[in-house]
Design brief:
The complex is a heterotetramer.
Chain A (H helix, E strand, L loop, with lengths): L7 H18 L7 H25 L6 E9 L2 E7 L1 H22 L10 H20 L3 H19 L6 H28 L8 H6 L4 H19 L7 H8 L2 H26 L5 H24 L3 H28 L3 H36 L10 H4 L1 H14 L6 H13 L10 H31 L16 H19 L1 H16 L25 H22 L4 E4 L17 H11 L4 E6 L11 E6 H23 L5 H19 L1
Antiparallel strand pairs in A: 1-2, 4-5
Chain C lengths: L2 H20 L5 H26 L2 E3 L4 E3 L1 H31 L4 H23 L3 H19 L5 H36 L9 H7 L5 H19 L7 H8 L2 H30 L3 H21 L5 H22 L2 H32 L10 H4 L1 H14 L6 H16 L3 H24 L15 H15 L3 H14 L3
Antiparallel strand pairs in C: 1-2
Helix pairs in contact in C: 1-2, 1-4, 2-3, 2-4, 3-4, 3-10, 3-13, 3-19, 4-5, 4-10, 5-6, 5-10, 6-8, 6-9, 8-10, 9-10, 9-12, 10-12, 10-13, 11-12, 11-17, 12-13, 13-15, 13-16, 13-18, 13-19, 15-17, 15-18, 16-18
Chain D lengths: L2 H32 L9 H11 L2 E4 L4 H20 L15 H22 L2 H32 L4 H9 L7 H17 L18 H5 L4 H26 L11 H28 L8 H22 L2
Classes of the chains: A mainly alpha, B mainly alpha, C mainly alpha, D mainly alpha.
């Protein structure tokens, strides 16, 4: 296109179409790994980079519209790109670039869906996420939304030979579908009887308070189902491990964020004026989800399930920030609302990079060891240094430790929590600060989880002999890991620059904004005058400086001699690798302290067992208490209806007769 | 009463007779007698049609009278009798609801039907206004009969008497439907009975009996869920 | 009498007679396809003409084509054609399995064409009496097809189908009589015209409400039975499950539509005379009840064709509910839903039929790994099920989108029920289909390549309708929606 | 930045590095006195560190780079922390880099690296120690944050020096809310620095210990750095306590060299007192089972929350 008619929106569309083309191209030679893996996926990574660039560049650009000639008769597909879309498009592009390039090296021969078909589904998934972010009318949004669910479902069930994977896929698609219907109903409320399903009309529609609340709650349910808010989270720990690692990375890193995007779009853009108590609902759900997720993450012994639960935790934190923003916005504290929203968006970006990094890291481990169970891993830092050290970055970031990026967003969130006591509602202003404590507890637990994750996989001694044959990631995989890690570091070291862009987005979204930033470029001081400031860059430099000085000093004043010896075995000379602490053991304090979260089933060995074994089965209380009874209820009702249908024709005639007489009596 | 012309009195008499006949069917347990009653019902219908034709002088009524004679008085009873002889089904088993109970329900139905017909009769300009109530009653009674019977054959008889009720309703309310429809209906009834005949033989060779409890296999039995 | 209409009605009739003679020959299936094709062409021509020249009133006003029924006519002819194409290899295989004998094949082909005739007559006629006759004839022509296999189960199914629909349709006749009665009153008794829908529609304002409400009850119960509305639906699953698959496809895809069509025609008249919400409420009640009953019975099915029969009941419920809500959007959505449902559902029955043939059973627990056995069937079944479950970008989603959003505004009380029902339906159907399509297979390959062209043609159309509805089609729907009222 | 500020900064760092082991020694001294047994030399920690530096480092065969890097990182983190906390003056150029929350994060980072290093060798004890250390950590952090919250509510900032300055220059010096939080803080301090009642720094009985289990595989210079870092950590916590609860005496505002000079003895006095108090607590209380630790820290958290509510209620 000529520069005259060049617009970011068109560029994005072209790139999305390109994704589609690449996907279809995969069907040309569906079984050729060389073609699909080594050719198409790198190309798609390039497209991702381009998308990230376009979106990033368009952050400041004013909103723009487009209307395509497809869709329902009175409702062609409306598209609109504004700041919010751009942020998430950037997220999509930047994260998927790393994941795609990793995936290029990830493909293997194996039964299940052919590589070409996976390629199609994968790119359909990416493109539909893009359309979700650009859609400007309910129908286009819903179509893209469900296409996203569908394509990811097929990706999850790549290995559809295994029953548990089919089960995971089924659960995932079921909950996604229910959520989608709820979103649909929320749109039905928001169109306000105008029968205009464009978002433009919804912005215009002024709903009466109860209707608006209904729309919000329906949306919260629907998007919460996709984001994995408790108690709608059950699909997440099933689906993420089932999917191939790059797909898990995308689902966790990007797809969950589309739900956040939808929630922001509905609440701040379409409904316009959020009411403060909505925020309390979101806040409560978010906090509970965060705690629930991280506690379960700590108890897992499958590395991908662990990451999945940690995703639930982060979604919880994001929704906490969301609720906080609504509360502030509702009671007329725009500056703090802006702060909370910035924290929210920042955390979305962070999590996209960290979680994708960790998932592809586990992918690399899985790839070279074929093992997902923490109990059979260990000591891989010697075999796979690249993966180990790059994953360490992700782990530390996810643990919310300075100077990495996870800390920045949590710091911003806590800063905004500090003002919660100024909310002019008694009780609320007392309870909100406790929310901060929950967030910190979740963050600290996240550190616990990450120590477990990294320590058990990469540190210690290999728990299985087979691990000796583990090999480090290939070039393409390394490239992907490096890209994602670099993203984490960039987000960590230049928060002021990121926030500068996010401010514009937030202003566009809710009209709220931070005061003018006065701090120097290297110093993050969101609200000048409060002296609450943080500079990751200097921080890092200081620590490194001290460390280097120390090392130097030690070398200067003392010697360098190091002897290797066996570890201290307390005089019990037959210690072996299997006597290390297991993942279950590491989770034990959590199980002890948060006992009421779990339903535990233990198998303890008898003193004289020939083959003593210790097993702990941890199950989700919500699954047992909510979902199984639900299924049982449906079964019972179904049996009741079936009882009415006993095959006797006289009975059926009786039904008709009674119906007839009843209706006649009705009109009589 | 003297104001009412004779034909009209006769018509009302026929109507009453029809109602009586359907009660008789309801109480009757011998299939052969059921068929005979059906034939008689057809006869009464024929009589009513002729009377109406004579009174209103609408010619197409004669035609439909002829149809009635051919189809409902002669052909159908003959077919059914043949079937009964060929299949050897003479008795219906004990009905699902005992006779007296059925009668009681029948009476209630009649009351309901008359109540239902009230508003219509108000504006019926035709000669036999109050006959509609009876038509409804006959239809519902035949319905009841189909519900309570166990043999396929008696259900069919019920079905046909329902058709008769409809026919009577159509005539008394509107001097019969347009001819196109009349023929269509007649054709359908005929085909229906033929199909029935085929059916009966198929059922017979399948179960060597026309007892309906053979036809209760397709039901919603407990199905354990697979993986889901 | 317009030429297209003549061909449209005459072709299947002659087809019925010809095949009644030649139906057992080797080329009979091809002949069947040929007649269906001719019918379809005629329907297309008719549609073009009506779209061009507006509504059509021919043969002493006995036949009447307007926007409402012309698209149903086209749809019927199309599905009739594709089903004929599908039944070619299908019935061949049945023949080789020895499930049917050549003579039965003759019956099958001739009755198939007869059934098409009755459908088309029922759709195009202007005479409520004739409509009734055609509906009854439709029952009679299919009842012997349901019992084609002569198994105990098929006989039972046929018997129930015959009795229940016969009794039901008898009520419809009484309703028609009452309608006639009221009309005669309003118009004055010049016999024939008092049953012509156009006339009735003209004078519906003066029709006696008391009579019409009675008439509507009888008509609703009568045609509702054929439309499979709960609790009058009991014949439907049996008939669908036990008959040959092509018949299940047309029963589900066409007969139900025509029954709904009849109900709606009556509703238009009655609403015009009653000026009360009663008919709408009845429709909504029936609709919701059907949806709920159907989804919960879906939950416990083991037979693949029974499963999708119940899903047909569910969708008829949704359509009825939408018509009950009324209003431009809802009617539009309901018409769209009729179209996409009959396309999708027949496609599913095609795929399911082949699947059952390949696996040699209709029990879903014994059908596994279709996707490895025959990818086309597997994907066909999977995509069809997802489409019927309202997954975008398929057209079913488009109509459900409109229906649900409308319900949320107009009848918010109903939405929780619908939400729950759709969720249960999804769990039930998808939970069954997924293991059938995926997983490890057991069955062996068959000589005859499956005729899956129809499946993918249908699904393609449904997909297209989901993404883009061509303007003239949209105008059809709009005009029809306006006709039905509210718009 | 003014030279005086730089001077203060450097002085603080130097003081921390120098005095931290001494503070440890002083506490042991006091404890010995309280348990009336002969006290070891107060300089003992220095000797220990010096000795360790001279030894040859012995490392487990399968230890990775992480294992060798951890001590330096931990030490570095502690030094940087010392640079953030205003122990003598509040006008520190470096403190803008990190506020109280970042400080908590910094301590957490150190903890994570120690734990990872402990898991690296892959003996049962290392993992056990890491596990317990992380447990204490995630229990203590919320309490610590609540404590900081109260202080920063009072002075409406999270920057530690600003808090100190605000509290120190406040006319009304008495905050009931701070009284509550002071108790909470003391408990957190004990837990975080592996003191009785959570851990016993004097024992080497593997199954009961936490801190020692972490260091089990370390020797020589690495161990020395770890020990020094531990001392620094204790010192830092003490200084945080001073900054929040007894801020008086630090050179605030435009305080010149004199004020700075004056703040040195004040700090010394505070440290002596704090050492005494710690020794006293450790003497009168017994070590808890590991799974009593949650209750202990929950109590600390409760006190902090009470402080918060009291502040919101009384505005003081």
């Amino acid at each position: 296109m000529t520069p005259a008619q060049y617009s970011p929106l068109n560029a994005c569309l072209v790139l999305l179409v390109l994704w589609g083309v690449i996907g279809v191209a995969g069907l040309l030679r569906p079984t050729s790994l060389r073609f699909v893996g080594r050719t198409l996926f790198p190309l798609s990574a390039l497209v991702s980079v381009a998308l990230a660039a376009v979106a990033g560049w368009s952050l400041g650009v004013a909103p723009e519209r487009a209307i395509l000639a497809i869709g329902l008769p009175d409702l062609p597909v409306h598209l609109r790109r504004d700041g919010l879309s751009s942020v998430f498009l950037f997220l999509l592009g930047a994260a998927s670039a790393g994941v795609s390039i990793f995936a290029a090296g990830y493909f293997r021969r194996g039964h299940g869906t052919s590589a070409g078909l996976q390629c199609l589904q994968y790119h359909l998934f990416l493109a539909s996420m893009g359309v979700v972010l650009l859609a400007d009318d309910a129908y286009a949004f819903m179509v893209a939304w469900e296409t996203m669910a569908l394509s990811s479902y097929f990706l999850v069930t790549t290995q559809h030979g295994l029953p548990e994977i089919r089960r995971a896929g089924f659960l995932y698609l079921l909950i996604a579908h229910v959520g989608a219907i709820s979103i649909l109903l929320s749109f039905g409320v928001m169109q306000g009887g105008s029968w205009q399903f464009t978002f433009e009309a919804m912005r215009g529609a002024r709903l009466p308070a109860p209707w608006a609340a209904a729309a919000f709650l329906l949306a919260l349910f629907g998007f919460g189902a996709k984001a994995g808010l408790v108690p709608l989270h059950v699909w997440l720990p099933e689906a993420h491990p089932a999917a191939p690692s790059p797909v898990s990375a995308l689902m966790s890193g990007v797809m969950l964020k589309t739900a956040v995007y939808g929630m922001l779009r509905v609440t701040f853009d379409l409904l316009g004026q959020p009411v403060w108590w909505w925020g309390l609902v979101a806040l409560a759900v978010g906090l509970f989800t965060a705690l629930y997720g991280v506690v379960f993450a700590a108890a897992q012994s499958d590395m991908k399930r662990l990451l999945a639960y940690s995703s639930i935790e982060n979604v919880g934190i994001i929704f906490t920030a969301f609720g906080l923003a609504i509360v502030f916005d509702g009671v007329g504290m725009p500056m703090l609302a802006a702060l909370a929203l910035i924290a929210l968006l920042y955390h979305c970006l962070n999590h996209a990079f960290m979680k994708s990094l960790l998932f592809v890291g586990t992918g690399a481990v899985l790839h070279s060891t074929g093992e997902r169970n923490l109990g059979r891993l260990g000591g891989l830092i010697h075999r796979m240094p690249w993966v180990a050290w790059l994953t360490l970055i992700g782990a530390l970031a996810l643990a919310g430790l300075p100077p990495l990026n996870g800390f920045v967003s949590e710091w911003l969130l806590l800063q905004s929590f500090l003002f919660a006591h100024e909310v002019p509602h008694t009780f609320v202003n007392m309870l909100l600060p406790l929310g901060a404590a929950v967030v910190v507890l979740a963050a600290a637990l996240a550190a616990y989880v990450m120590v477990k994750f990294f320590g058990v996989i990469f540190l210690g001694q290999p728990r299985e002999a087979a691990l000796a044959r583990a090999h480090d990631a290939g070039v393409l995989q390394r490239l992907g890991l490096v890209w994602l890690a670099a993203g984490c570091i960039a987000l960590a070291l230049f928060p002021t620059q990121v926030i500068h862009y996010l401010r514009g987005v937030v202003r566009q979204l809710s009209g709220a904004d931070l005061p003018a930033q006065t701090a120097p470029w290297w110093l993050l001081e969101p609200i000048p005058g409060r002296q609450a400031s943080y500079s990751a860059l200097v921080f890092l430099l200081a620590v490194t400086a001290v460390v280097l000085l120390t090392i130097l000093g030690v070398r200067l004043f003392y010697h360098q001699r190091v002897r290797r010896a066996d570890p201290w075995d307390c005089g019990f000379a037959r210690l072996d690798a299997r006597m290390q602490d297991t993942a279950e053991g590491f989770g034990q304090p959590i199980r002890h302290i948060f006992a009421q979260f779990f339903v535990l089933r233990r198998e303890l060995p008898e003193p004289f067992d020939r083959a003593p074994r210790y097993r702990v089965l941890i199950s989700d209380r919500i699954w047992l208490r909510l979902y199984q009874p639900l299924a049982g209820l449906v079964q019972r009702i179904a049996d009741g209806f079936a009882w009415l249908q006993q095959g006797r024709i006289a009975t059926y005639l009786l039904y008709s007769f009674v119906t007839l007489v009843a209706l006649l009596a009705l009109v009589l | 009463m003297s104001a009412v012309p004779l034909t009209l009195q006769l018509l009302n008499f026929c109507a009453a007779l029809l109602l009586l006949l359907s009660f008789a069917m309801l109480s009757q347990r011998r299939v052969v007698n059921l068929v005979n009653l059906l034939a008689v019902q057809g006869g009464v219908l024929l009589l009513a049609t002729l009377l109406l034709a004579a009174r209103t002088g609408q010619h197409h009524l004669y035609l439909s009278a002829a149809l009635t004679l051919g189809l409902k008085v002669i052909l159908l009873p003959w077919l059914l009798h043949r079937l009964i002889r060929r299949l050897g089904v003479y008795w219906d088993a004990e009905p699902l609801l005992n006779i007296s109970g059925t009668m009681l329900v029948g009476v209630l139905i009649v009351v309901f039907a008359f109540g239902l017909a009230q508003p219509i009769s108000q504006l019926a300009s035709t000669a036999t206004r109050n006959a509609i109530g009876i038509a409804v009653a006959v239809v519902l009674l035949s319905f009841l009969m189909m519900i309570t019977r166990r043999k396929a054959m008696s259900q069919v008889v019920g079905f046909l008497s329902m058709e008769n009720g409809l026919f009577f309703g159509a005539m008394s309310a509107t001097y019969g439907m347009p001819m196109v429809v009349e023929f269509g209906v007649a054709l359908d009834v005929l085909v229906a009975v033929l199909v029935l005949g085929i059916f009966f033989f198929q059922i017979r060779e399948q179960f060597d009996s026309l007892d309906l409890h053979h036809l209760e296999a397709l039901r919603e039995e407990a199905a354990e869920r697979g993986e889901d | 009498m317009s030429l297209e209409l003549l061909i449209l009605l005459a072709t299947p009739l002659t087809g019925a007679l010809t095949l009644g003679v030649l139906g057992a020959r080797r080329f009979a299936p091809e002949l069947n396809v040929g007649f269906s094709l001719l019918t379809f062409l005629a329907a297309g021509a008719l549609a073009v003409r009506v779209v061009a020249a507006g509504q059509l009133l021919v043969a002493h006003e006995q036949f009447f084509i307007d926007a409402f029924n012309v698209f149903l006519v086209t749809l019927t002819a199309l599905v009739g054609l594709t089903t004929a194409i599908f039944s070619r290899p299908y019935m061949r295989v049945e023949l080789e399995h020895g499930r049917v004998r050549p003579l039965q094949l003759r019956l099958y082909h001739s009755m198939y064409q007869l059934f098409m005739t009755t459908m088309l007559v029922a759709l195009t006629t202007n005479n409520m009496g004739l409509l009734w006759v055609a509906m009854e004839a439709a029952t009679l022509s299919t009842v012997l097809l349901v019992t084609l296999y002569r198994t105990a189960a098929s006989l039972e199914a046929g018997w129930k189908y015959f009795i229940l629909c016969g009794v039901g349709i008898a009520q419809a006749l009484f309703g028609t009589i009452l309608l006639y009665f009221a009309a005669e009153h309003a118009i004055g008794g010049e016999g024939v015209s008092a049953l012509l829908w156009t006339h009735l529609n003209g004078v519906k304002g003066q029709l006696e409400p008391a009579v019409l409400s009675l008439a509507f009850v009888f008509l609703l119960v009568g045609y509702g039975t054929k439309a499979g509305l709960a609790p009058l639906h009991n014949w439907l699953p049996d008939a669908h499950a036990e008959g040959p698959t092509p018949i299940s496809a047309v029963l589900s895809g066409l007969l139900l539509n025509v029954a709904i069509y009849a109900v709606v025609r009556c509703k238009i008249l009655v609403e015009g005379s009653l000026h009360s919400a009663l008919p709408s409420q009845m429709l909504m009640g029936f609709g919701l009840l059907s949806v709920v009953v159907a989804v919960f019975l879906l939950w416990r099915q083991r037979d693949i064709k029974r499963l999708f029969a119940y899903s047909s009941i569910e969708h008829m419920g949704i359509i009825t509910f939408a018509f009950g809500m009324g209003g431009a959007v809802a009617n539009f959505a309901a018409l769209l839903h009729m179209t996409v449902h009959s396309l999708t559902k027949s496609a599913i029955f095609f795929a399911a039929g082949h699947a059952a043939q390949k696996a040699g059973t209709q029990l879903m627990d014994q059908i596994r790994g279709l996707i490895t056995l025959s990818p086309t069937i597997g994907w066909g079944l999977m995509m069809g099920s997802l489409a019927i479950l309202g997954m975008p970008p398929f057209g079913v989603f488009a109509s459900e989108f409109l229906i649900l959003t409308t319900a949320m505004r107009e009848q918010p009380w109903a939405t929780p029920i619908l939400l729950a029902a759709l969720a249960v339906a999804f769990a039930a159907i998808f939970g069954r289909v997924q293991p059938m399509v995926f997983g490890e297979t057991t069955a062996k390959r068959l000589p005859h390549p499956p005729a899956l062209l129809p499946v993918f043609v249908h699904l393609g159309l449904v997909l297209g309708l989901g993404l883009y509805i061509p303007p003239y089609l949209a105008d059809w729907y709009r005009a029809a929606a306006r006709l039905i009222g509210g718009g | 930045m003014r030279p005086i500020e730089l001077l203060t900064q450097l002085l603080e760092l130097a003081a921390a590095l120098a005095v931290a082991p001494l503070f440890l020694g002083w506490i042991n001294q006091c404890r010995a006195w309280l348990q009336n047994r002969g006290a070891p030399s107060i300089w003992l920690p220095y000797r220990g560190i010096r000795k360790l530096f001279h030894k040859d480092a012995v490392i487990a065969g399968n230890a990775s780079q992480l294992f060798r890097l951890a001590p330096y990182i931990t030490f570095g983190a502690m030094v940087v922390a010392a640079g953030i906390i205003p122990s003598m003056g509040t006008r520190l150029p470096f403190t803008r880099v990190a506020d109280a929350i970042a400080l908590v994060g910094l301590l957490a980072t150190a903890r994570v690296f120690i734990s990872l290093a402990a898991m690296d060798v892959g003996t049962a004890f290392g993992t056990l120690g890491a596990r317990r250390e992380m447990m204490i950590g995630f229990l203590a952090e919320p309490a610590l944050l609540m404590i900081i919250f109260v202080a920063s509510l009072i002075s409406s900032t999270t920057a530690l020096p600003a808090i100190t300055e605000h509290l120190a220059t406040q006319t009304l010096g008495l905050y009931p809310s701070l009284a509550f939080t002071a108790v909470a803080f003391t408990m957190v301090l004990l837990a975080e620095n592996a003191r009785i009642p959570i851990d016993n720094p004097a024992t080497h009985l593997e199954l009961t210990m936490i801190h020692e289990a972490l260091l089990l595989e370390y020797s020589a210079r690495h161990l020395a750095l770890m020990e020094w870092a531990a001392a620094l950590k204790l010192f830092n916590y003490a200084c945080i306590g001073f900054a929040l609860f007894i801020p008086w005496g630090v050179s605030t505002g435009q305080g010149g060299p004199l004020a700075l000079a004056a703040s040195i003895p004040v700090l010394a006095a505070k440290l002596l007192a704090a050492g005494g108090v710690l020794a006293l607590i450790e003497t009168v209380s017994a070590k808890l089972r590991v799974f009593r630790a949650p209750e202990f820290l929950a109590t600390a958290f409760l006190f902090a929350v009470l402080g918060l509510l009291v502040h919101l209620l009384l505005g003081a």
